[in-house]
Amino acid sequence: MNINAGYIPDMTEQSNSTDPADRAGAPLFDRLTGGHEAEGGLSDSARTAELRNFDRHILALAGSKVADGLVDPKLVLSWLLTHLGAGSFWTGLLVPVREAGALLPQLFTAGRIHAMPRRKWAWAAGSVGQGAAAAGIVISALTLTGPEAGAAVVALLAFLALCRSVCSVSYKDVLGKTVGKTRRGTATGTAASVASGAVIVFALALMTGWVDRFALVIGALLLAVLGWIIAALMMSRVEEEPQAGEPEGVAASLAKLSLLRDRPQLARFVAARSALVGTALAPPYLVMLASDQSAARQLGALVLASSVASFLSSTIWGRLADRSSRLVLIGAGLAGAGALGLALLVEQAGFSGTIWAIPLVLFGLMIAYHGVRQARSTYLIDMAPADERAAYTAVSNTAVGLFLLAAGAGAAGLAAISVPLALGVFIVMCLAGIWLAAGLDEVEND
């Protein structure tokens, strides 16, 4: 389907730069960016529209990120499937399907999306698709129980992840064409801050117990649907100049996988990153540890612990990664193994039913997870030659996506036997990731 075919030019795209409406968002823009000083990277017409586009990017990203937080497969959907009696197998598949589904298609979709004149339509379509998937999850939760509910939610999450991958591939191009270089991080960071605040409010509402938690989760999922629709509408109004690229065939995309054979450091990095995915896969199993005792009471505390860990650790990890992303990978791996080891001790001591124990473990684990995220991104960018950075990213994401699916399915099978056994495997994976990361080159000082 050609998602450009229905494009109708916005009247705002024809507006005159001297129109007072162009400065309507200037106070916010000036406050966040320090002013509309001249800089390279944008055409004259793109600079004229930047004030409007800046606000629309924040609104679009905030809507999408709030929705992401409300449909968190690590916690919210894991609790939902546990509540519906879907079983550990389907609950264990949530994170690998979500993560792998967002990574695997990129090697094959990037060329087609980059060939589109206006890539905002790919992002908008992906956002609408995510909203549709979230609506389907609501319907499944209200009409199904047991393994049937698990299968339906996992299938819908796979579709949501595919739509998310389209947004991921297209967004950097749209942002680069419509917002100045020194203001892009401000736009995305502001949206992330807004989203974090919204998710924290959701967590506090869960903790109060004033509203039935199942009803509150369903309401949050419906808000996520609205968030993605608003995000699509805002992105559709971004004034993006047409700029078609060259399409890339499947054969050319697959040929990039030879980099894993020809570049030993890339292969070792992919192996280390794959081993450390245990920090991403483990949270649903922490939810399952308390499922028979106090998962309902703990859900709000778990969401709050995750949000606070992200807020507190991401900037610190980022600064440390600028010094040595290899050491951050090692440190985050140690933190992940320690948190998972603590989870096993908590379970063995019989404390997993308390309101504080599992959220405390999750707080430590999510700090480790964000360390891995920051380090892997920084290491890849610093390691890759400038002209091969896109290829390194696509190959790395595809390889890790494949491993995520295999590891996630294997862990889900183990969890059907014993949840602590699955957590034990994640500890071994973290230790393997530490060993692999220790053998990587230092790339920050090259």
SSE inventory with pairings:
Blueprint: H1 26-33, H2 44-70, H3 76-83, H4 88-103, H5 106-114, H6 120-143, H7 146-178, H8 184-208, H9 213-236, H10 250-255, H11 259-262, H12 264-275, H13 278-281, H14 283-289, H15 295-348, H16 357-383, H17 389-417, H18 419-438
Helix pairs in contact: 2-8, 2-9, 3-4, 4-7, 4-17, 5-7, 6-7, 6-9, 8-15, 12-17, 12-18, 14-15, 14-16, 15-16, 15-18, 17-18
Give a brief description.
With 446 residues, the chain is mostly helical. The chain has helices at residues 26-33, 44-70, 76-83, 88-103, 106-114, 120-143, 146-178, 184-208, 213-236, 250-255, 259-262, 264-275, 278-281, 283-289, 295-348, 357-383, 389-417, 419-438. The chain has two domains: 43-238, Growth Hormone, Chain: A (Up-down Bundle), CATH 1.20.1250.20; 255-446, Up-down Bundle (Growth Hormone, Chain: A).
Write out key terms for the chains shown.
globular; 446 residues; single chain; 76% helix; Growth Hormone, Chain: A; mainly alpha; disordered N terminus; 18 helices
What's the architecture of the largest domain in CATH terms? Up-down Bundle
Give the end-to-end Cα distance, rounded to a whole number of Å. 45 Å
Topology, number of strands: 0
- The run of helices and strands is HHHHHHHHHHHHHHHHHH
Report low-confidence residues grouped into runs of 5 or more: 1-25
Kindly describe this structure.
The chain has 446 residues and is an all-alpha fold. The protein folds into two domains: 43-238, MFS general substrate transporter like domains (Growth Hormone, Chain: A), CATH 1.20.1250; 255-446, Growth Hormone, Chain: A. The protein has 18 helices and no strands. The longest helix has 54 residues, at 295-348. The protein is globular. The model is unreliable at 1-25 (pLDDT under 50).
